Every structure is written in structure tokens, then in C-alpha cells.
Amino acid sequence: MNWKTEWKPLFWIIVVFTGCFFLPVDLPRVQSALIESLYLVRWYAREHVLLCLVPAFFIAGAVAVFVSQAAVMKYLGPKANKILAYSVASVSGTILAVCSCTILPLFAGIYRMGAGLGPACAFLYSGPAINILAIVLTARILGPEMGIARAVGAIIFAVVIGLMMHFFFRHEEAEKAAATPMMGEEDESRPLWQTSLYFASMVGILVFANWGKTEDQSGLWHAIYAAKWWITSGFSVSLALMLATWFNLGFVRILFAAIPALLMAVIQPQHPELAFTFGVIGLSMLGNLKSTRDGEMGQWFEESWDFAKKILPLLLIGVLIAGVLLGRPGHEGLIPSDWVASLVGGNSLSANLFASVFGAFMYFATLTEVPILQGLIGAGMGKGPALALLLAGPALSLPNMLVIRSVMGTKKTVVFVLLVMVMATISGLIYGAIF
User: Fold this and answer.
1) How far apart are CA 107 and CA 167, in angstroms?
2) What is the 3-state composition of the chain as percent helix, strand, coil, each rounded to the nearest 5?
3) pLDDT at res. 184
């Protein structure tokens, strides 16, 4: 046996065995933390996998199949116009009401297609950070100055983080650009307006199926929430018509796939998410038909499934770990919530740094960061740390980090996470000093 190569496996076996041997399962806090992790996973599966991640997987698969590599390279590639690339990537979150996990399949899709590291990272940050509904909610509940600071800070963050990632790994990016073959003209087999409407229908389904409930029972945002399933249904019907005509699936097969969803909508109208689920099942079955598998539709489903099987297990593992350590909103894990409240008071460097680190590792679903922050501010959290958490929290999470590492490697992931934490800390210090 060669101990030079075998000592690492032996070391980790000893560490894991020792941890299992002395696992303090009799302690009430440990038992509570384990239960909270299971609650968090159940909540995540109910609220985010079907409504958020599944549409995101389909969009990511569509990017891989229907968006030509020439188009990605033209607008987001290493040789793309920097002003255009970062402008598009840094404001992408205004139309995507997604969390730090839902953005991952989309990021993986454009990065794998050849997007430059800088624009891809700008997109990765901006997707969950510049959610326009969350910014409006922040301004309404936490004050207009906090809402404006969050919006401006998030856009600046996206651009700066993207540029810094490009700078730190500029040699790798130069090699990538040099190795990239000259791309021909974009595929003209389908008009651009058709492809754009096709993607718009899927983005519409993703956005409106996850439209959050507001505290104010009046106004535009509440009206959209009240009608969100009708709007989602409209986008779904539009997608079905496009698949039947432009993608040659035919109305008969589309109708056959839609029957379960239509029946569920009639039988259980008070639970529209069930109809949504059966619609996804019908669409998935459609993709597995023999007549569909060999064409571009088959490639779409294959790419979507590839993203799902690579990303979903890592996300669920990350959610379990986050649940053990931090619990759910309003419920504690191993780390007591009063510790957090006591560490983020005032506007010191340590308070802002802790808020950034805590926000980066904790999982925030879309819009949930605002009421959580409202409670922390009530417990004594300073305005600077509050902004630091707003700028770091929605864009990062422990599950998010695990998947990013699988896409672009450990080194780039560490640099990306540190950039978010450092910039959030500095922004919090500046904001706290002003306000």
C-alpha cells in the first residue's frame, strides 16, 4: 500500500467516523437543527423545485439548443463588446424574479455555450439581486433610501464583480478566446422574433408562477398576484401554440400532453399549482415520444434533463446543510438567532462583515429577505449591515456555492464569493456612515 497516496482517504475516514461516533444527537438543539433541515428541504421542494427550478431547467436547455453559439459569443463571449456584454448581464435580474438557486441552470447554460467569465458572473450576480419586485418591496418596507441603495448597489456590483473576475483570470480568458474558433453567421433557420417570443413565454411562466404575495392588499403588485395563474396560463398557452406550429409538434400531441393539466384545473381549481405540475409532466412525456426524441425538441429535453440531474442533487444537499446550521426563517438551527442579532448591531467593520458572510451562506427565497431583515432591524441591526446582507444574501447561498463550484471550479468560485462579501461589507460601511 502506498501511504503517500492513501493517507488522504484514511484521514477523511477517521474524521467522518469520529464525527459519527461522538455525534451529539441527544442534545435538544442538535435534534431541533436536524428537524429544521428536513423542514427546510420539504419547504424548498414544495415551493421552489416545481415552480422555480423546473422552468429554469427548461430555459437553460433551450438556451443550449435554440440559441446559437455564435449569438452567445457575439454578445457575451470573451471577444464581445464589453459595454454591451456587461450592460445586458448587469440588468438581467429586472425581468427574472428568481432566487440564488434558480439562476444557476441559466448561468451554467450561457457559460457552457462560451460566454466570457466576466459577463457570465455579472449575470450570475444580477439575476437574483436586481429583482424589481424585491427592490420595490424593500423601498416600501425598509425605506426608499434602502431600496435605492439596493438597486444601485446591485447593478454596480454586477459590473464590478464581472470585471474583477475577468481581471483575476484574464490569462485563462485570453487562452479561451484564442482557442475559440471563428464563428460563422447565426443560424437563420428560424426568425429571431420567433425565438425571442419562445423564450419570452418560458420566462413569463417562470416569473409569474413565482410572483410573491404583498402585504398591501391593493395596488398593481397585488393585482398581478391575484391574477398570476391566469397570466401564467396565458404564457403556457402561447408556448403550446409555438411548439405546435413553429416547432412542428402538432396540435394533436400538444393537446394530448395538456389534457392532464386541463383536467386538474377543472377538478382542483383552488390548487392551480397541481395543474402546473401536471402540465410539466405532460410536457416531459411529450419530449420522450419516439417521434420527438431525434429532433431539436428531443435535444431540448435532453439538455434540460442534463442540467437537472447535475444541479438538483447539489442544491438539495446544500439546503440540508444550511437548514442544520441556520434553520428556517423564524426557526433556529445550530447557530442561535440572538447571536446573529447581537453581532450585526451598529456600523462596525465586524458587524458589516458578519452580515455579508451570514447573508452569503444563508438561503433566501425570493422576497423573503425583506421581512427577515425587518425583524433583524427591530432587534437592533444597523442600517449598514442591513444593506450588506441585502447585497450578499439574495445572490449567494450555500447550495448556490456548491453548484457554482461544479460549473467553474473551486478557485473561481472562492474568488467570486469573496468579491461579493468584500464589496457588500464596504457598501454597508459607506451606507451606515451616510445614514
Assistant:
1) 19
2) 75, 0, 25
3) 47
